[in-house]
Design brief:
The chain is of the alpha+beta class and about 900 residues long. Among the domains are: about 350 residues, no CATH class; about 260 residues, no CATH class. The chain contains 32 helices and twelve strands. The chain is elongated, with a radius of gyration of 37 Å.
Length: about 900
Amino acid sequence: MSASGVAARAVESLVTRACRYPRAIVAAVLVLSCAASFYVVTNISVHTEIAALIPPETPWRRDAAALEQAFAEEGDDITVVIDAQTPELAEAAAARLTTALGSRRDLFRSVKRSGAGPFFAREGLLYMPQAEVERTTEALIAAQPLLAPLTTDPSLRGIMTSLASAATSVAEGQADPSRLAKPVAALVATAAEVEGGRPSFFAWQPLITGQAAEPSDLRQFIEILPRLDGAQASSGAAPVRAVRAFARALQLSPENGVRVRVTGSTAIDVDELATLQEATGPLGVVSVLMMVGVLYSAVRSARMLCAIMLTVFCGLAITAAAGLALERQFSLLSVAFMPLFVGLGVDFAIQFCVRYRAELISHEAPRVALVRAARGVGGGLTLAAATIATGFFAFVPTQYQGVAELGTIAGIGMIVAFAASVTFLPALLVLLRARSAGVHSGLAVLRRADALVDRRWRLMLGAGVLLGVAALSLAPLLKLNFDPMRLRDPRAESVATFRDLARDPQTSPDALDAVSPDLASAQRTSARLAVLPQVREAITVASFIPSDQEKKLAVIRDAADLLGPTLDPFDVATSPTDADLVASLHAAATALHGLSGKPAAGQVDRLAGLLEAAAAGPPEVRAKLQRVLISGLPVALNQARAMLRAEPVTLTSLPRDLREDWLTNDGRARVQAYPKAAPDDQAGQEAFVAAVRAVLPHAVGTPIATLETRRLILRAFGEAGTLALAAITLLLFATFRNWWEVGLTLTPVLLSAVLTTGLCVLLGQDLNLENLVALPLLLGVGVSFNIYFVIAQREGLEGSLGSSLTRAILFSALATGVAFGALGLSAHPGTASMGRLMLISLGCTLVTTLGLQPAAFRALRRGRTFSALELRPRRDA
């Protein structure tokens, strides 16, 4: 007896027992499934960190771990990005939010401002070029007449006093009229917005320093290290929620001139899980409904449909529990066992049910039909399950942990799916008394296709060869995209913010880091890196020690001597009454009217009119105008005071948290290099990595992680594919004992893979970290479909396209296609790409299985190869 005959008898025996004890089997499986579901729900954990899928002994992972150990502040992070309408709003918002977040030590290990705070406020001028230091201090000195009334009376009255004094000086020829241009223009804009009831924000820094605010002046950063329970995105949800809650509580909103965004690895992972649930939730419902519709069309029985769905869901629960028990937590790759299980589990169940339906047409007794169905499909199901499981288990030895975990769980899943299909499913069919309303087992349209194959088999084989050659020629053009950020939802706040920062060279995440034995060697290495054409900048902690400090400090001290009494007055006026405000507004308007005929008189007259309108209006208008104008004034004055108190910067005077970012306690020093290439310039990034590694072989960073992950994944899938193909080939030969039949089984699978590649190129679909899971599904479905046909041909099946077998194959593919192809409509790029690739691969599999293989059988019959292939009816011994 052949191996397939032995398998068929074994399946027949299992189905016979299932029909004899259906209640016991169904009860046992349901109890096991409920227990498995409870275990999964209470223990499920999914981590989204790609690096965690790579063995820690990998060289670059070891280097990354060494860097993280040397600088304890490294790790999963949250970056808060604050953008404001004025520099003062940005500074105040960052300071308030930092203080608030620092109070939650239970959620955050570290909260610090990046490139800001008291140190940089005081020493900021020292980091400017000498010429810019001189321009800034000269502007501060020139602004002394403006500052004097403001420091003694920081109110709307003080502002109007300063304005009136300046206008009077210009009118008397004692001051340059151009000095009023900027203040008048700024006050006109603000007063007009207040009068119109629109939001308004007033910036003092340009008036005090004489320089327009740079984009960097309007943006502040807070770097946070959260307390996480483990390497999973869900544990970061509470810290991320807390950051956003604090921002709301402090009223840091666009309505108040501030926009707070959250990014960083922790926030990205949290948003990724949330957007995946949002993207796949409604689509999941649609997918299940569509799959139910296809399955009903296949079996034409609601009870049979219920049996199939319950079998698949119970098997999925058991597989998920087994996988979770083995791996402790799922990854973004290993969790892909779910679509693999559903796709192939549905295939096993539908093969059995469609054959059962066909047997019901000839045999009225359901139990007899079930046993005969088991005898008919048992060999094919057993071989398909064994072959697919073997192929998946071949993934286990690969170095890429995500692929290995996927292989383990998916392999177990195939065993579970097969066992459920030949025990639980027939027991359910007996208990549900499931019958089909159909009178034909096949599809009429495909029965006519058999005649077409007989006539056009040469044309079909030739077309297959031509399509294969054309697709193979396109294969080198297939794009490989292994940048995880390109698979994230661009609408998610954390992702959009990350991309925004990545476009700015000053905040790009594409730096490479390495650890040198000491600061001296780090500086030498930095100098070597800085001259490389691929490197934009290389820095160490010494880069934070300004150059030419003595010259700059001399200029700053001269300005401080002149401005000291102005910025730090002895007396400060009491808060003005509304009557005081009215009087000051009238006085300022009167002084402005005295400038008629002077340059920019139009703006001056407009401002005078606005001030008079405010004086004549209700007190609420004046209160709002005062609130808008002075809200940022204390911050601006404090910044002016701080920058004139600069002191010499040395290595020891640098802030402690900054030193800890760059120096270890034992003297080792960090070196950091930034690329000239843009983030989306793959060739430029690879050249940058190669150039830096030539100097620093142990450098680590995002560009290296992306490059090495891509190499590892491609190698892992290549190794897994080779091992799977070899294992499947040996198993098929051990079963068939005929290389021709092995070739007939595998050739359509290989051709479908080639056609899938060609179509991906033509349709612009790249291969990425998420849609790679479609490839094992392509392998499993393709092998199973072709095994069914080869075994059927061995048993003498005629008119294969019009048979119940083809009906089962077609509806199995359709069920899988609609279930996961609907994901192609998802707004999430990674999910959508997985759905599209599954549709493409399933389509190519159907074309080769239903088109190429029947034509190949016809050609072999034509060549009188019956004896070699044993394609004739035979009786098992």
